[in-house]
Amino acid sequence: MRGITVQVIVLCLPAVAQQLETRPQVLQLSLKKAVEIAVSPEGSTRLQLAQESLKQTEERKNEALAALLPDIGAQVTERNQTVNLAALGFHIQFPPALGLNFPQFVGPFNVFDVRVSANQNIFDFSAIRRFQASRASVGAAKSDLNNTRDQVTEQVARAYLTALRAQSSLRARRFNWPTIGRTCWLHRRSRLARICSC
User: Where along the chain do its domains lie?
Assistant: First the structure.
């Protein structure tokens, strides 16, 4: 019988070893690492939404600032053309004795045109107020982002500490299990002794 048990153990040993190799490693997670994961860009959805809200308010601030800045425009054109003077209404005829002819077509010639324009509002009180309000909105969005980051950190810390508490409670129960079993056995024995003594 003992030989069969040894053979079964020897036969099962490679399968057990293979299971131990394929079992995923237990990751050790510290509180600091858990918080870093939660506040990372891929971590909390609430934090991502707060960051996107901050980006939107910064873009609105830039739009409000654009109303206060000068508008500068430039235009460059180049063309090669021939002009029909008769089509423009120029019908000049010189006396035949002079021997001069007024041309009907002029060209081809090149035209290069460069234009720059600038427009600046001297004082636009409503644009100034819109910019101030958008700047205040950016400050509020930054505060909201910091508040959200703090809330996510608090939630992760609370969940981490709850898990540690549950783990230590489970360890304590496992450690106390023999004591509990002994106490139950003594309780049953004393109860049986009371019943029998009656």
Answer: 71-119
